[in-house]
Amino acid sequence: MTTDSPSAGPSTTLGRKALKAHIQYDFVQANQEYSENGTADAQQLTSGPRSRTAIITCVDSRSSPEHFYQLKENDAIVIRNGGGRTNDPGAIRSLAIIQATSELKEIKVVHHANCGSLFYTDKWTKDMVTENDVRAPAGPYRDGCGCWVQAISFLPFCRKDDEASDDEIVKNSVKGDVEYLRNHPLIKPSVLVTGWFYNLATGIVEPVEC
Ligand SMILES: [Zn+2]
């Protein structure tokens, strides 16, 4: 299990942002066109994904399994959270219920290059929210945010070695997260758990030896 640790060296790039131009995306129009071109299999009982595979990956909008694996509806289960962490209780809840309601043969853990989880720590995030700067973009959080944030583990990637490259840190996080699932009581031993690194520059999803 990979967690933030007090010995992890502080990053000089905490909270790094590279904001790009805001676009107005017409979600309603996009959905209208989609619905006119056929919808997903809408049978009443779920039979699980055709590939019998679940993919857990990051919420980053550049890291989309539907695109890099060319998935269609019902091809695979996709679970996403910040970093694509397996030690997130929400991920375990989803994986447990998928195994209870359908057959699962493989779980792919896919982390990606240049992930935002490289650029925060648990303490930095909690301090930032607790400070609740009214000048922050989009304004402050609501009252009570300090209590709520203390109860959350933000699961950043751990910088254990100043010499390691960012890509090595991400690949090490894949290994830790695969190991976590392989030993978790709610993941059946019959389910294969594999690790992958999505290289944004090449579009290749590279295997990680785990
Ligand atoms: Zn990410």
From TrEMBL:
Listed cofactors: Zn(2+)
Q: Which reaction does it catalyse?
A: hydrogencarbonate + H(+) = CO2 + H2O
Q: From the UniProt record, which GO molecular function terms apply?
A: carbonate dehydratase activity; zinc ion binding
Q: Which residues form the signal peptide?
A: none
Task: State the UniProt keywords alphabetically.
Answer: Lyase, Metal-binding, Zinc
Q: Which family does it belong to?
A: Belongs to the beta-class carbonic anhydrase family.
- Name listed for the protein in its UniProt record: Carbonic anhydrase
User: What is the organism lineage in this UniProt record?
Assistant: Eukaryota, Fungi, Dikarya, Ascomycota, Pezizomycotina
